Amino acid sequence: xxxxxxxxxxxxxxxxxxxxxxxxxxxxxxxxxxxxxxxxxxxxxxxxxxxxxxxxxxxxxxxxxxxxxxxxxxxxxxxxxxxxxxxxxxxxxxxxxxxxxxxxxxxxxxxxxxxxxxxxxxxxxxxxxxxxxxxxxxxxxxxxxxxxxxxxxxxxxxxxxxxxxxxxxxxxxxxxxxxxxxxxxxxxxxxxxxxxxxxxxxxxxxxxxxxxxxxxxxxxxxxxxxxxxxxxxxxxxxxxxxxxxxxxxxxxxxxx
Length: 256
Ligand SMILES: Nc1ncnc2c1ncn2[C@@H]1O[C@H](COP(=O)(O)OP(=O)(O)O)[C@@H](O)[C@H]1O
Ligand SMILES: [Mg+2]
Prior knowledge:
By secondary structure, this protein is of the alpha+beta class. The protein has nine helices and ten strands.
C-alpha cells in the first residue's frame, strides 16, 4: 500500500498492525483485511472508472443503511479517493460467501438448508419497507436499460446492442417495486454458523424490480428442482416465470 493511502487510512482506522490480502477476491475490486488496535476492517479498492463509480455508490448506500438499521450489511467507515483508485472502508465481517459455503457443504441436506436460508434473507429484504433515502423518482428498469446502453457505447460491457434492443422491446409487465440488492448472487451474501446472515457488495441496493434479485439468486441452481424448492421454502413471494428468469439473468445481467 502506498504511503499516502496508508496515512489517510490510519486517520480512519487507527494504528495498523497487519494487512491480509483475502483469499476470496471479487471481480471488480481488491479486498484486504486491515487489523488494528480497534478491531478489523475491510478495505475494498477499485481502479477502473466503472468500478470506482460503483464503489462510491456502495459507500453512499452503506452510509444510508447504517442510519436506518433495517437491512443487515457491514458498517460503513469511510471512502478514500486517490488519483487512480478509490477505497472503501467497512467493518470486516466473519463468515464466508454462500458460494464457498455451498462448495464446502458436506451433503445435500446442508446445501438445502443454506439455500433455504438465502431465500429467507432475500424474502426479508423484499418485504422491508421502502427506505426513503434510497428511493428513486424514475423507473428502475428504464434506468438500468439506459445505463446498459451507455456501457455498450463506451465499450464497458460484454452485452451486445442486439440483446439490448430485444430487452427494450420485451420488457416484462411491471410489478410492485421493493427494496432490492441489485447483484444478488451467491457471491454477495455471507454465511455465519450455517445461516445466510448478511448482504455485501451493495452498490446496486435501491428500490427496484425484485424479480432481478430473485433471478440472480436462483441462477446457480436453476436446473436443480430440489434446490429451487428449498429456496422457495424461504422466499415465500412471487416465483419468477422462465421468461422472466431469462430476461433478467441471461438478459439484463449481461450488461453489468
Ligand atoms: N465486509 C466484509 N467482511 C469480510 N469479507 C468481505 C466483506 N466484504 C467483502 N468481503 C470479501 O471480499 C470479497 C469481494 O467483495 P465484494 O464486495 O463482493 O467485491 P466485488 O464487488 O469485487 O465482487 C467477497 O467475496 C468476500 O469474500
Ligand atoms: Mg461481489
